[in-house]
Design a protein that fits this description.
Chain lengths: 168, 519, 122
């Protein structure tokens, strides 16, 4: 038993628990708060995978900016506790069945993957997943998708204003 | 750190998209510096000019030798250039139809045209993406722009409902696509399409479930975008609720770009896969999509909704062409839907590149016919009727032949072309796909395609019957003319009729663009 | 043994301390502070005046626009970190790359600004 394994188990369990709370909580605000903790525990798992930058971005963007947006939207819609629940309609049964089916397929798929933990070696471990090495990849090899992201951000900006501004 | 060697030649395939992005930026910036009462007539003209410039650039690029650019993240080949050309045609026609549509609603704004240009730039970039992350980002560029366009007119419940549905289901389908990509990445250790095929055949031996689930999820993600059955549920509501010129752009451009990406992914990566798998997948999708799309379109009295279902049916014929691409040996494939080759005269490789040519030609044909039909639908609709849901009723077409003979003739040409009746471009392209499907041996599936397209003729001709046989209804409103709609109708009618009789240079471009790649 | 957790030890200590403080201080105030309840003290109040309705009210849509624009620029900032770390090594090549990236977003910024999406009053 080493520390990493224990921490991984703890993070995984807590991620699943808080993700479950997101869909089961009655109040949307509680769901949003459970989502924040899901993001945090996921960041912990990223750290255990040596993905330092991804962990930081996860906390910065998801637990920070995106959660703020979620809370604003919940307050914008002034959602109370959901009153109607538990009525099994045909579409709900079908939706639930296909979700369970997808879960089963993905579970079987992933369980059949031969487990070979990658060994980075001490050399790579010093730089793997750091800002510097990620930056090197983004700005040398991945420059086409990187520039495409700027276009995506511009479109998102214009789209948000067009959809939400009361008078265009 | 070694810096990559990026030369100006790497930017060549981006050129059409760059032109559109620059045009969109000019529209955005000029819009905010205008006073609210200033004339906005220049905006459509600028959009059309940008589309033409970008289309001509794509045409010029079509004769460049195919090569990878940006270290293999993108690719320049005649296939992507032809698709960009198709997108530019759809964009120009949709922008022309927008002029009177927006003016009638007092909603002329630069953002509308800018978002159309951004969406088209995304489509062009999607057609040239040769790596999964690049592909995903570009797919999102075009999706986000179309979500915003769908909800552009926020009065009434229909546009918001359509925008919301499209956004939720589109986001879901993107997630499905991304999950499939992640599984394929896990199996191969790369996201570049060209590098995937080799490791994929090894992964097929060690972890077949990973490869199959990944490929199916990727295909499902694309099937949402092209509106294939059983992933079509969003299509009628979204097509009906969106502003009509946006529906035109969606049915032509989004579909073309998604088909391009799907074909590129599976042709390039599929080499490492068991070829029976994409064949079985696309045959099943084609069968369901053709039959269900046509059956659901028959009872529709709402023309805009009928065109939405018809767009599903057309995705089915295109999927038949896609399935034909994956036949490796005649008579040795998915037996339920195929039989051994009847003709036997055409070598398999020729038949398969015919299928690719057929797909491209079909996309061009569908763009002219569908965008033309939507332009006419938007010319007939009135804002006041939208919330009642009667704006697109068949009755609106009653007696159109007496009131506007030119429009009736144009609509007849579009309906014949969509129905696949000679002498139209729709007939020629359908013939090319069906012929190649028979040549590779997908005989059973082709018979289904012919039968279902015969059923389709019923609902297309019904519109023609209403236009020519029914009297003009009492108190019909006057039909306003607008230069934009007229130009769009003339161009698409001429193209639909003329290209059906003499394809001319287009067949030369097609011969060039329809070369099988990734083999 | 090499572990990815090594640099996070100080962070874990801070988190632990912060958590302990957060639990301890409210406990301390309730335990140590004198409690003399009266009817007026235990009635709900807003900033000294009597409460006039539920605290949950509909937010204006402008909050949403601002939050969404915040996300867009937040994502842009995320890309600036790995760029800044490699600034020397990337040289002019990286500079031009980031210039193109930023220029695209500046077009958006000008648009949003002139459109008045950042004005609170309109």
């Amino acid at each position: 038993m080493n520390v990493e394994l224990v921490l991984f188990g703890a993070f995984a369990l807590l991620t699943l628990l808080s993700a479950g709370l997101v869909i089961l909580a009655r109040s949307p605000i509680n769901s949003a708060m459970a989502l924040v903790s899901t993001f945090f525990f996921l960041a912990g798992i990223y750290v255990l995978l040596w993905a330092h930058t991804v962990a930081v971005v996860q906390v910065l963007v998801y637990a920070g900016a995106i959660m703020v947006l979620f809370l604003f939207v919940i307050m914008l819609l002034n959602l109370g506790e959901s009153a109607h629940r538990g009525k099994p309609t045909l579409s709900r049964i079908l939706g639930g069945a296909s979700a369970v089916g997808l879960l089963g397929v993905l579970g079987i798929t992933l369980s059949r993957v031969p487990a070979q933990p990658a060994n980075l070696g001490p050399q790579a471990q010093a730089t793997f997943g750091t800002m510097a090495s990620i930056g090197q990849s983004i700005f040398t090899q991945w420059l086409l998708p990187f520039e495409a992201v700027s276009l995506l951000l511009l479109v998102a900006m214009v789209g948000a204003v067009v959809v939400a501004k009361s008078r265009i | 750190m070694t810096l990559p060697n990026i030369t100006l030649a790497d930017f060549l395939p981006l050129l059409p998209a760059l032109i559109m992005v620059v045009g969109a930026s000019i529209l955005l910036l000029s819009e905010v510096f205008l006073s609210s009462s200033a004339s906005r007539g220049y905006q459509a003209v600028l959009t059309v000019a940008t589309a033409v410039a970008s289309g001509l650039t794509a045409l010029g690029l079509m004769f460049e030798p195919p090569h990878a650019v940006f270290l293999g993240y993108g690719v320049l080949d005649p296939f992507s250039s032809f698709l960009t050309l198709v997108v530019c045609v759809g964009l120009a026609l949709a922008a022309l139809a927008s002029v009177s549509f927006l003016r009638k609603r007092g909603a002329e704004r630069g953002e509308f045209y800018a978002l159309m240009l951004f969406a088209s730039a995304g489509m062009s970039l999607l057609a040239m993406s040769a790596e999964f992350i690049t592909l995903f980002v570009n797919l999102e560029v075009l999706s986000v722009a179309t979500y915003a366009l769908t909800a552009y007119l926020r009065r009434g419940t229909r546009p918001s409902e359509a925008g919301f549905k499209y956004f939720i289901l589109g986001a879901f389908s993107s997630a499905v696509l991304l999950y499939g990509t992640a599984l394929l990445y896990g199996a191969t250790g790369t996201t570049k399409l060209a590098d995937m095929a080799g490791p994929l055949s090894q992964a097929l031996a060690t972890a077949p479930a990973l490869v199959y689930t990944g490929a199916i999820l990727v295909a499902a993600g694309f099937a949402f975008k092209v509106a294939a059955v059983p992933f079509h549920m969003w299509t009628p509501d979204v097509y009906e609720g969106a502003p009509t010129p946006v529906t035109a752009l969606m049915s032509a451009g989004v579909k073309a770009a998604a088909f391009a990406a799907m074909v590129r992914v599976f042709l390039t990566v599929g080499k490492g896969m068991d070829p029976h798998m994409p064949l079985a997948l696309f045959s099943t999708l084609a069968l369901l999509t053709m039959v269900v799309g046509n059956l659901l379109a028959i009872p529709q009295r709402n023309v805009k909704r009928m065109l939405a279902y018809s767009s599903i049916a057309h995705a089915g014929y295109l999927l038949l062409g896609v399935a034909a691409l994956f036949v490796t040996a005649p008579g040795e494939h998915f037996r339920i839907l195929g039989a051994s080759a009847l003709t036997g005269g055409t070598p398999l490789d020729v038949a398969r590149s015919d299928a690719l040519r057929g797909i491209l030609y079909y996309l061009l044909a569908y763009t002219f016919s569908a965008v033309g039909a939507f332009a006419l639908v938007s010319a007939l609709e009135r804002r006041e009727d939208e919330d009642k849901g009667t704006a697109w009723d068949l009755e609106r077409f009653s007696g159109l032949a007496q009131r506007r003979p030119g429009w009736a003739f144009a609509m007849t040409a579009f309906m014949l072309s969509l129905g696949g009746i000679p002498p139209t471009i729709g007939f020629m392209s359908k013939l090319l796909i069906f012929q190649s499907a028979i040549d590779v041996g997908l005989v059973g599936l082709t018979i289904v395609a012919v039968l279902s397209s015969a059923a389709g003729v019923y609902y297309y001709l019904r519109v023609v019957v209403y236009m020519f046989m029914r009297p003009v209804p009492e108190g019909a409103q006057t039909l306003e003319r607008s230069w934009g709609t007229e130009v769009a109708l003339v161009i698409s009618t001429v193209a639909v009729v003329l290209l059906g009789i003499i394809p001319g240079r287009v067949s030369e471009w097609l011969a060039h663009a329809g070369t099988l790649f990734g083999q | 043994m090499i572990t990815p957790l090594a640099p996070y030890l100080p962070l874990a200590v801070v988190l632990l301390l912060a958590g302990l403080m957060a639990m301890a201080i409210p406990q301390l105030t309730t335990r140590l502070g004198p409690k003399r309840p009266s009817a007026i003290k235990s009635s709900p109040f807003e900033a000294g005046s009597e409460s006039s309705g539920p605290a949950r009210q509909r937010f204006a849509v402008k909050f949403y626009v601002v939050a969404l624009l915040f996300i867009v620029f937040d994502v842009e900032a995320v890309f600036l970190y790995p760029w800044a770390v490699n600034f020397q090594a990337l040289g002019w090549f990286g500079y031009v790359e980031m210039l193109v990236f930023a220029a695209t977003l500046i077009v958006g910024l000008i648009y949003v600004w002139k459109k008045g999406a950042l004005d609170w009053e309109s």
